[in-house]
Amino acid sequence: FIYHNEDKAQKIWSLMQTYQGIDQKSIQRSIVNHVEYTLAMTRFNFSDFGCYQATAFSLRDRLLESWNDTNQYFTTHNVKRVYYLSLEFLLGRLMQNTLNNINMEKNYREALMDIGYDLERLYDEEVDPALGNGGLGRLAACFLDSLATLEVPAWGYGIRYDYGIFKQVIRDGYQCEIPDFWLSGGNPWEIERPEVIYPIRFYGYTEKYEEDGVERAQWKGGEIVMAKAYDTPVPGYNTFNCNNLRLWKSLPAREFDFQSFNKGDYLSSVESKQRAEYITSVLYPNDNSEEGKELRLKQQYFFCSATVRDVIRRFKKNNSDWKDFPNKAALQLNDTHPAIAAVEFLRILIDEEKLDWGEAWKILHSSFSYTNHTVLPEALETWSVGLINHLLPRHMELIYLINHFFMDEVAKKYPGDYQRMQEMSLIAEGDDKKVRMANLCILCSHKVNGVAELHTKLIQETIFKRFHEYFPNKIENKTNGVTPRRWIHCANPKLSALITEALDDSEWIGELERVEYLENFAEDEEFIQKWIDIKKQNKEKLAAKIEEVVGVKIPINALYDVQIKRIHEYKRQLMNILYVIHRYLTIKDMSPADREKVVPRVVIIGGKAAPGYHNAKAIIKLVNGVGDIVNNDKDIGDTLKVIFYPNYCVSAAQTLIPASELSQHISTAGMEASGTSNMKFVMNGCLIIGTMDGANVEISEEVGEENMFIFGARVEEVNDLRNRLFSGEHKPIDRRLQRVFDSILSGTFGDVSIIYPIIHNLMEGKDYYLVTEDFDSYVKAQNKVDDTYRDQKKWNMMSILGVSRSAKFSSDRTIEEYCESIWKVDRVPIPTPNDTER
Ligand code: KOT
To answer: What is the distance in A from the centroid of ligand 1 to the CA of 450?
Structure first.
């Protein structure tokens, strides 16, 4: 309505033309204004938390300036946008990252200091928004940072869960889960968009009709839930561009069902409201396993439908020809979790936009693509045909149609090859028919990617073999990466400053290739000493934190050995703790004089177990049991400490990784698709002990195998070894390992009952993850670690070389590859306010 009147529009523009000043007074004024007018606190008496909130609001104001300019620019230039659809975004805290990306940390630190507040203390006031489980969700967050930094027009889409991943507390050695109501103190980073709201239908029935020779349907009845948008600005590093993360919250269509109420059914009128709100209430806490619950499918469809509608609405603002859609939008599916978006898109094109099947299919196929993150069979999503039919009847019809056309094609290409057709079908036949969501994604996408070279080769040769034969150019590799902004510059400011000093400028933060130059310092004594000092300071900070949260004092001069990731049998935290017990028993056997010669170690294990994952929880209990004994054993003293670090999360990682000297990435070969913390550790000068799995393989290519501790069965050997174990042909258990089993089973480390079945299976050769098989080579690698650590010059040289050769693992490189070969999008730098008038 404003735009009818050019004069008034001009007036508004000129009023908005002022930007927040960057001088100290302006910063202080904006913070204090928020204290008074947003938080309604007094200016002179507000807590650290109040100051954190006001500072966050003041930063949000700045972000909104560039956010608005960016979106305005993208709209007027009608640029192609990337949409990253993910059920998880593990953002981590935002304040430090925001300040660094917009290059204002120093200004804010000084402005706050001047009014008596310590910026670092404020950082700790922020809740860690944890709307993800692990690697997959954190990857999405790193991608957002790189997309904005590379000035790619991109939006993330997801769910605004009321409860993120549970908080883990350890009671009596057991994991307990506490709900994470992360919004209780408000969320100063988001903007609620009450005007961006879509109705989402569930259940009901379809009525088919024919129109222009095309079969279409109307989807009727059922129930409607509303999706409301919440936006979080995503600033890039060293650019005025600011992208967006849009998260959906569910609301009842009507606040109150008056019909039921008037009929006297008060309770059921409230119930339907609650059922609506329930959809976005909690993140499913499973990593690498599926949860076949109706509510999970509801979450998926709810968010996909709102997202697809929003994307279409934005397209239609500037475009009238549907054929242009693939030139204006690229939708990336983060695993199969948002797969139903493809079917929803097809449904809208056919039933609402009245396109014919051929046109609609072509548009869908040229704009969608899919990333696979795992080969674990228990994580490959399938949904029962009955459930989809009940919840989304039109979508089930369309899935059958897609399958029908596809099976016809396959039959033509491979006449009589029913085996192949069965494997490629979207439907797994059986008593309870299932839709295979991965097959659906592959079919609907023009590109499918794996997340590391080895993983991509595996999906091409195993789970997606038939599809790879059928579509030989579809499946390609995009090795994961992590953002150096959060994982070096923010997490390890001292290391960042040293790199900047050595390279004589800070451009490396936005172009990690530049750290290659550090190689020249790998043997520079003075530089090495600075390197050592920084690691020591980071270790001191971690030691203080551990004493605070776990109550155990750990020595600073010990080797800090860290394994932090979700607890899963394939990641083999069990092998780690079995080795620790072996180490403990070995030290116990030694004379006091020999103990003096042992390289002291602090072994830190952290990670959450899915609440229903019994074996993972048993492993946590064992680690805590071992810690209790070892840490209190006077014979052992400071030669060995064992810490279970509770509630591992993004902010904990930011303290743990910079302090680590050795990190463990020891999954059974072929099972970890990529891993991304391995990359973060290398960037922080930590050495890796690991198997030839996931991205470890590429890390070893980059940094050199001689600079890592690689061990264990290779992927080609795994199947044979496993078959041999299960056929009873296994070798006798290693005597050291047998001794470890005996000590566990005798109750040395506490209650035996919950770990017993796991140990018993290993002894019987039922060792799917090859722990007993790889143990000997793991011990040898650990011995090599000790020997190398004794030579500090060598160790630190390896550490420096690792950092200098880590450039490949920046998510900037990953995103450039996606842009080039999947999304076909260009950079669109926004003119900064100095360059142009608004
Ligand atoms: C699967 C089902 C539910 C929730 C999460 C998953 C999942 C997570 N599948 N793969 N991942 C991890 O993704 C990371 C990012 O690509 C990889 O680095 C890691 O190896 C996967 O395990």
So the answer is: 11
